[in-house]
Each structure stands twice: as structure tokens, then as C-alpha cells.
């Protein structure tokens, strides 16, 4: 039959390219966006353009922000001797949610992954090194995800930073709180063993 | 802590209002839309505005279309004596996919639902009655969903159309093909019994 409404089809295709959206969800979203009242559609579009126009990287920590420097770098109450290095701005939000950390951050925007052609030059490594020059920072916490690329990136950076006489630490990986030893996968359990602490 | 990036937060909230998108998916989508290359973002926005600007209701069948009348109404090979009445433009696509139907459609854009304050005036009922005036249509197939509102709408319309000497039929509802009697819910099974056919 091949009957379709071309602009609707195009919108559906665009939505289908978003992460986690399949063919059926895309069609459902397309109809929703089509039937949205004009006012809501305007707000939606504005939110999208606004976010894309206003958000940029903080010149200090490379986290995303809509102000000149990000509110975390600008906050004088934060401990300037510790920098937590993460892959992604979402990781900053995750660490902030714990309420346990009061230092600064550095967002790499990715991991070193030779398989995908991403070397240190594609990450914000230069920016990190520049920050460490004035010797206020005493500890750098590597908070990469426990993946092959994350581990490799942490190792690479730690080798780069150690000659600068900076303490380099890595987040502890192990059994999640509330998790069950019996059901933990072997890699998590090995990491948990390796990282054991004296009581 | 309350640390957040306002424009990103706003975009996330907008995405969260879409059907089937929860808080975490919305955050993920917001980051994806933020990191999208400029070209892709433009295509995405264009697809959205385009769909909203160009798509309107067909003046004959009230289906969505981007041409003057919809391609189904405009297709001279289709049987003009039968009209299939559906709730939603998506239902037209569903019936078209069967490849079994060669008549025309009429899209009501909803169901009668006194609970939600939707009466026949909010639906395209007047438009349907106007189409039936010239007496080419001999059969109207009610293809509403088998819900309370769908049933009620079908019943309401059939009472309206019968005095016009038009055959009014309703889709058969019953056990889906490949389904199992044992696992069918009782309402489906009752409908399937009621609608039994002679062999």
C-alpha cells in the first residue's frame, strides 16, 4: 500500500534516532508532538534551542554550564585542593547527589578508546594539566566508570599526574550497597576483593 | 546541594512530559539533544516544525494529510461505497497495513466520553453525516477500539446512521490469531462467543 504522511514520517524517523526510542515509541511521540497545543510546542522548541544556545563548557572544569564559569568552580566554599575527574557532566550530577563530596570536578567528555579512535587529545586532558600547574590541587580522584576504557583512562592519567607530585586516587568499585554476594558477577567481586579495607 | 544547569533542567522537564518518557530517559535524551551536531539538530527541529505546519485534516475524511485532500480520498481506485470509521489517524495506518480494505475512512479524532467531557460535538460526527448525504456510501464499518468509550461511540453512531438506510457494521472482536483460549481474558472470550460465525 505504501500510504504515509511524509512530514509525519520524517518526524518519526528523527525521533527514532534518539537513544532508547524504537519505531513504535517514535510514532507515538510524533503524534503527541503533532497534536500538542501551539503554546506547549513553542515552549518545547524554546527549551531545546535555549539549551543548545546557552550551555557551553566551563573554562575551568569543562563541565556544562550556562554561566561564565560553572557554579561549582565559582563556589568559594568548595575545597580547591581536590579535583574529581569524571567522564561526563552526568557523573558530576551523580557525585553531587551523594552530598559527600566538597571538592571540584574536571569533566573529560569521554574516555580514551583506541578502538573508537579516541585518544587523550579528544578529551579535556590539556585543560586538566593546566589546572594543576599552580599547585593548589593536592589530590585528584579518578571517578571513571569501571569499564575497560574507564580503567585505561584512569591509569593513563595517573601515570601523567604522578610525576607532578599529586596524590592520585580511584573510586572504590565493589558490591553495591544492598547487593548480594551470591548474585554479584565475578568481575565486581574480584574488584571488591582487590579493594578490601582493613577493619 | 541543589546544583543544576537551568536550561538543561528545563529541556529535561519538557521531555519528561512526553508520553512514555520518565525522568531518567528525559535526562538521557536532553544530553543527547545537547551534544547533537548542529546539522542534525537543525534537521530535527525542521522535521518538527514542518510536521506541525504542513499537516492538517483532510476536508473529506478528517484524516491527517499534508496535501489538499488525503491520498486515500483522492485515490480513484478505492471503493467509495464503504467508509471505515476510526478513532485516530494511527488506526487508519493499522487498517491499511492489513492490505485487506479498499474503501474510504473517516477519522473521528477521539471517542465520546462523558467522563472526560467529550461529547459528539468534539468529534468529527457532523463531517461524517455530511459525507453520507449524497447516498454513495452503502456501508459504514465501525472500527473503534473495544473499550467502553469505543463501544459507546459505535453504538451512538449506529443509531444515528440507521435511519439513513445505511448498513452499519462493527469490527469483530475476539481471540487474537495465535492467541490461546486458556489465556484469553473473560471479556475478550465473551466478545468472541457473542460474535461467533456459522461454519
Account of the protein in words:
Two copies of one chain form a homodimer. With 199 residues, chain A is α/β, with parallel strands linked by helices. The first copy, chain A, has a domain at 77-181 and 186-192: Dna Topoisomerase Vi A Subunit, Chain: A, domain 2, CATH 3.40.1360. Chain A has eight helices and six strands; from the N terminus they run H-H-H-E-E-H-E-H-E-H-E-H-E-H. The mean pLDDT of chain A is 90. Chains A and B meet through helix 1, helix 2, helix 3, strand 2 and helix 5 of A and helix 1, helix 2, helix 3, strand 2 and helix 5 of B.
Q: Characteristics of this structure?
A:
homodimer; 199 residues; alpha/beta; Dna Topoisomerase Vi A Subunit, Chain: A, domain 2
Mean pLDDT of chain A: 90
Please tally the β strands of chain A and state the result: 6
Name the helicity range of chain A.
Answer: 40-55%
Which architecture of one domain in chain A does the CATH hierarchy give at level 2?
3-Layer(aba) Sandwich
Tell me, what is the CATH class of one domain in chain A?
Alpha Beta
> In which order are the strands of the major sheet of chain A placed?
4-3-5-6
How far apart the termini of chain A lie comes to: 71 Å
The gyration radius over C-alpha positions of chain A equals 22 Å
The greatest inter-chain interface is formed by: A-B, 49 and 50 residues
Reported by name, the CATH topology of one domain in chain A is: Dna Topoisomerase Vi A Subunit, Chain: A, domain 2
Low-confidence stretches of chain A: none
Major sheet summary line of chain A: 4 strands, parallel
The fraction of residues in strands of chain A falls at 5-15%
Pattern of helices and strands of chain A? HHHEEHEHEHEHEH
Shape of chain A: globular
Query: What is the subunit organization of this protein?
Result: homodimer
Q: List the total number of helices of chain A.
A: 8
Helix-strand category of chain A? alpha/beta
Amino acid at each position: 500500500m505504501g500510504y504515509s504522511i511524509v512530514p509525519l514520517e520524517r518526524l518519526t524517523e528523527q525521533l527514532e534516532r534518539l537513544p532508547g526510542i524504537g519505531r513504535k515509541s517514535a510514532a507515538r511521540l510524533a503524534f503527541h508532538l503533532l497534536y500538542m497545543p501551539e503554546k506547549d510546542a513553542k515552549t518545547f522548541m524554546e527549551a531545546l534551542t535555549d539549551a543548545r544556545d546557552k550551555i557551553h563548557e566551563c573554562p575551568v572544569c569543562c563541565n556544562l554550564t550556562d554561566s561564565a564559569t560553572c557554579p561549582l568552580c565559582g563556589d568559594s566554599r568548595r575545597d580547591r585542593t581536590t579535583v574529581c575527574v569524571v567522564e561526563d557532566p552526568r557523573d558530576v550530577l551523580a557525585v553531587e547527589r551523594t552530598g559527600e563530596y566538597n571538592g571540584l570536578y574536571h569533566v573529560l567528555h569521554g574516555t580514551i578508546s583506541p578502538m573508537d579512535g579516541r585518544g587523550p587529545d579528544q578529551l579535556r586532558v590539556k585543560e586538566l594539566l593546566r589546572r594543576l600547574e599552580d599547585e593548589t590541587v593536592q589530590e585528584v580522584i579518578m571517578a571513571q566508570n569501571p569499564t575497560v576504557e574507564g580503567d585505561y583512562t584512569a591509569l593513563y592519567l595517573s601515570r601523567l599526574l604522578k610525576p607532578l607530585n599529586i596524590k592520585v586516587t580511584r573510586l572504590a568499585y565493589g558490591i553495591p550497597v544492598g547487593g548480594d554476594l551470591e548474585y554479584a558477577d565475578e568481575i565486581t567481586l574480584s574488584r571488591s576483593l582487590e579493594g578490601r579495607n582493613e577493619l
